[in-house]
Amino acid sequence: MAKQTGQLHRLGKFVRAFICSVSLLFGLFQLSNNLGILYYHFYILETVNIVIFSATYDWIIWFVSAVGLCAGALLRMVRRGLTQTWQPRWLIVPYLVLAASFALTPLSSQIAVVVGAISASLVVAQSIYFWSGDYFGERRVTAAMIMAGIALMLIPIEALALGTWIYNPFDYEVPFMPGGRWAFALADLNLFSLLYPLLYGLLLLFLFSWAWAPPVRTIWLRWRGKGRLHVGEDLEHGERPIGWQAQALVLATISAVSGFAAYYPYIRLSGEYLVGVDGIHYYNFLTRMLNEGALAALVPDRPLFMILLYGFQKITQLPVEFIIRIMPIACAIALVVSVFWLVKTGTGNPRLALLGALFSAFSFQVTAGMMGYFLAAWLAVAGAFVFFTFLLKSMESHTILYILLAGLASIAVLGVHPYTWLMMAAILAAYILLTIIARRRIGREAIIAMAPLAITAVALVPLILLTSLGANGMASVIGVVKGLWQTLMSNLSFSKITLLLPSLSHMADRWVGGAFGSPLVYVLALVGMVRMADISKNFHRLLFSTVLIPALAILALVPGYEQLYYRIAYICPVQIPAAVGLYWLVNWLTARQPSGKEEMKSLPKSSMSNVKVLIYTVFILVLFNYALRIADQVLIQMI
Q1: Residue 381 and residue 335 in contact, taking contact as beta carbons nearer than 8 Å
Q2: Looking at the DSSP assignment, which residues form a beta bridge with residue 47?
Q3: Residue 247: count of CB within 10 angstroms of its CB
Q4: CA atoms of 137 and 141, how far apart (whole Å)
Q5: 216 pairs with which residues across the strands?
Q6: What letter does residue 172 receive in the DSSP assignment?
Q7: 245 — alpha (psi -120 to 50), left (phi > 0) or beta?
Q8: Average pLDDT value over all residues in the chain
Q9: Has residue 552 got a pLDDT over 60?
Q10: Are 544 and 553 in contact (CB under 8 A)?
Q11: Long-range contact pairs involving 630-633 (C-beta distance under 8 Å, separation at least 24)
Q12: How far is CA 78 from the centre of its chain?
């Protein structure tokens, strides 16, 4: 009997949490639809309007869930009495406001919905806060249950939207045409764009997180105490380690998904078509190399990449257009594997590394890379991550092997895309400077970090003599760098920083199909940057350097050079701090109390694992939909 009573009590908590989830989610739909939120989709300004079933049915679902939540909470308040000191009298106010909003609906539905949605959210929040352990359960556990309920409702929407995108190339229809096919994909787009008005501010905060994240972390530590800030350890203690076979299987799956996203625009195109801005240029030059010989590769500023294409064609004898079409798959897989290796090396956490690889599969390196067809830059970014991995390994082991491998990786990046190498070298210089500051001396780590640059300098001699990066080319590159530095130093002021916000809007809205417009990723990245704002750790210093240098470079170009912003921001590994942010948030929500009576209020470990799966699943589906939505917009150019 006692066991049945306990099960019924637990079931009641689940039901109340799910009602909260329904009220919050459908209340959010009603609120957003009445606020006139604007967002850009493929250069066109749209208004957020989220409809799942129909406008009427969605409102009824929200109304019934809000009324049911209030009725249950008020009944509980009456039973316990309003005079108890742990229940403030003002708890009744949100209920009165919610009732008034329903009464005002015939007079002004827009105002009534806005006020009602806000007050219903307050009812949920105060219920969790004031009745924890009695009405719902431990606060953090309840928050996890509510998020799981929201995820449970969003997963079918996102899965059906993803199914639409996967099916569409095989029976193509212009996206978001009137009709039933695009209902869920349109709902997903509007959900994804809820935070779009904050996009430019989020992007600005991320670019300058190296300045504000360390003080925020210091304040957090003093307020909450030192604990659970390390991303290298699982917050859920006692989890089984992931074997290398499982890691390889998951990484292979992620790589396949990334390759699918990169090849997505070609599914419905015949072989004579190329996509992206630069695709035709790679086709033309590779054709020229086949006619004139491999020495023609010494003319462009990315000789190694062209030699790779040339050698691949000679070995396989495949058509040139086919090679150009499949190169995005290779670049996407290289990006995924390199990020996994970098994060695993830097944190020692394979779960976080796999999550970083998954975020990379749907990152703007893939989506913007397809829009612009930045094949050389795309591969060079993956090469830069490999270089940083060897650098971290050399820091840990102090062996000459990894220093040499880092030097070779640096030379490879320089030959593939010298402009990415310049950014990589600047990031390395910032990392060395931060290392000296953290150690308060020029120690062994700083010297080791300088070694790959010395190796690259030796390799530059024949490269300068034999390629277009000769005396004139190098002088031109050095002149550009000096000009940017002088511009930055002469115009570095608060007024210049204020000009950055409107300038970033052009990058987010109008360049490469809006591939940089991902507010959800930036929110998670901000959380991740705060969690990693500890420059005493090598990986953290490196991550901060990868944000610091692009931010300063973009600042040097303000205003008037918006067309170059996205090329500079392209090297920013936003997916890594975003993965850190999501990983920490999910683990924090689902962490069980170690001992004591609080453990009685926690869910079983299996239930918490299910909560994790639900939250991760909805994020994966949202990001997958984003990647295919951007990939479908890729401009088509005929050979």
Answers
A1: yes
A2: 38
A3: 18
A4: 7
A5: none
A6: -
A7: alpha
A8: 81
A9: yes
A10: no
A11: 630/367, 630/370, 630/371, 630/513, 630/514, 630/515, 631/261, 631/262, 631/264, 631/265, 631/367, 631/370, 632/165, 632/168, 632/175, 632/264, 632/265, 633/42, 633/371, 633/513
A12: 46
Tell me phi and psi for residue 240, to 5 degrees. Answer: -70, 140
Residue 623 and residue 367 in contact, taking contact as beta carbons nearer than 8 Å: no
Whether the CB-CB separation of 337 and 288 falls below 8 Å is answered with no
In the chain, the N- to C-terminal Cα span, in Å, equals: 76
Q: How far is CA 124 from CA 140, 142, 207, 377, 586, in A?
A: 14, 11, 34, 48, 20
* 487 token code pair: 């511009």
Indicate the DSSP class of residue 634.
Answer: P
DSSP 279-299: HHHHHHHHHHHHHH-GGGGGS
Backbone φ, ψ for residue 172 (5° rounding): -70, 140
- Residue 227: pLDDT band (50, 70, 90) is very low
Question: What's the sign of the alpha-carbon dihedral 595, 597, 598, 599?
Answer: positive
The CB density around residue 292, as the number of other CB atoms within 10 Å, is 11
DSSP code per residue over 32-81: HHTTT-EEEETTEEEE----SS-HHHHHHHHHHHHHHHHHHHHHHHHHH-
Q: For 390-406, what is each residue's pLDDT tens digit?
A: 999 988 877 889 989 99
| pLDDT band, residue 468 (cuts 50/70/90) | low
* Residue with the two structure tokens 């401009």: 635
C-alpha 250/C-alpha 362 separation (Å) is 15
**Beta strand 44-47 with 636-638: parallel, antiparallel or unpaired?**
unpaired
In whole angstroms, how far apart are CA 410 and each of 125, 418, 423? 52, 10, 12
Q: Under a CB-based contact definition with an 8 Å cutoff, are residues 562 and 516 in contact?
A: no
CA–CA distance from 348 to each of 34, 340, 409, 541 (Å)?
A: 46, 11, 22, 16
